[in-house]
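pls read this stuff:
=====
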Amino acid sequence: MKKASLILSIVLTLAVFFFSAQSGEASGSMSFSLAETCHSVWLNWFPDSLLTLESLHVILRKGAHVFLFFVLGLSWMLTFRLRQLPFYSVLIIGLVIALIEEGIQWLVPERGPSLVDVFVYNLPGYILGSGLMFLLFRGKYKNIAS
């Protein structure tokens, strides 16, 4: 279980880095395509809605940050708790991953790093995920690790 959780956490982290390494055009077109579909469905349900496609696109992009880091938080918390490492170490790895993820974007054409993404979307998502894992399995880690 310890090895599997570590492998999963590393794979998920590499997936986040992969998404960050996509060009601005590739990243934008993927999320814009999803936004167009969602916007069409939204307007079918709420024809008088003032939600614009551009606003929905931003919501989906920032929501993806929160979701991906939420999943990372779940995974890394399980990994660290199975090894009985302190909670603060999980938070440090989350911050490091978020900073590296934004740093990668600095190197990619048509992308740019954003500390707002780190501290408003990535880290809160990570803290929610790791916090949920902590609360759900508070006294059970010793049983899982054996």
